[in-house]
Design goal:
Elements lengths: L2 E2 L5 E2 L6 E8 L5 E8 L7 H16 L4 E6 L12 H9 L3 E2 L13 E5 L9 E7 L8 E6 L8 E6 L7 H9 L11 H19 L3 E6 L28
Parallel strand pairs: 4-5
Antiparallel strand pairs: 1-2, 3-4, 5-7, 6-7, 8-9, 10-11
Helix pairs in contact: 3-4
Length: about 240
């Protein structure tokens, strides 16, 4: 029997078909369950319709709009129709079958997309299309699910517009800086002076700016918390031409 888990996912034991269920969460906490089913070819048995009813019972109990789609391999007696036993199950649960054309090269409708499009909240399934493909004996069934997408996650970053900087003027100001007339002899002190002077001149020619960008799921370009505290393990050689 199919039962919803504590996190809202479907779980259970079935023998007549394979099922993969996912929860799509959109903007303003709106969500839709999508259950994808594959049933091997063969006569439609009462065991299959009973287990299908068990799955639909659990989907209804979740109190969330849902879509059931997949390869049912339940061909009907008329082209463009599915097996009447399966169609009867959909009628019992007041589900709308959106695929009404053949989805197989043999002229049968084997793939289904059903939903509760009679409920308020706008049409759930739209732009359904069936297209011929050359790598399968099934046609490609595509559609749009009416759920607002989640807003993109953005991050704020700082940058300098170095490509627009006048490099000639920058080099001139570096030559006029304290780097060339300092009496500092300690390497650590000169390194601090170098950092301060380069930053000062950069602020004149390429001041820091702030931007925003979308963050990808695997965006890992940020430094770790420990990275700024690590001491650079390299030597900078500076040549002063006087």
């Amino acid at each position: 029997m199919f039962t919803p888990g504590s996190d809202g996912h479907l779980c259970g034991v079935y023998t007549e078909f394979e099922c993969l269920a996912v929860k799509l969460v959109g903007r303003r906490a709106r969500s839709v369950f999508v259950a994808c089913i594959y049933r091997p070819p063969g006569p439609v048995s009462s065991a299959f319709t009973n287990q299908l009813c068990q799955l639909l019972d659990q989907l209804v109990l979740l109190n969330t709009r849902f879509v059931v789609a997949g390869d049912f391999n339940a061909l009907g007696d008329i082209a463009g129709h599915i097996n009447y036993h399966v169609a009867d199950v959909f009628t019992q649960y007041d589900l709308q079958q959106h695929v009404n054309v053949p989805t197989h090269v043999g002229g049968n409708t084997l793939d289904v997309v059903v939903s509760q499009d009679h409920e308020p909240g706008g049409q759930l399934i739209s732009s359904l299309a069936v297209q011929l493909v050359y790598f399968s004996d099934h046609h490609l069934v595509s559609c749009c699910i009416g759920i607002p997408p989640t807003p993109p996650v953005t991050t704020t970053y700082s940058y300098r517009p170095l490509r627009k900087m006048d490099t000639t003027a920058f080099c001139h100001d570096i030559l006029q800086s304290r780097l060339y007339d300092s009496s500092v002899t300690d390497a650590d002190e000169y390194a601090e002076l170098l950092d301060a002077e380069v930053k000062r001149v950069l602020d004149m020619h390429a001041p820091l700016r702030t931007g925003r960008r979308r963050s990808g799921q695997h965006d890992n370009r940020q430094l770790s918390d420990e990275a700024p505290n690590l001491r650079p393990m390299f030597i900078v050689t500076i040549r002063l031409d006087g």
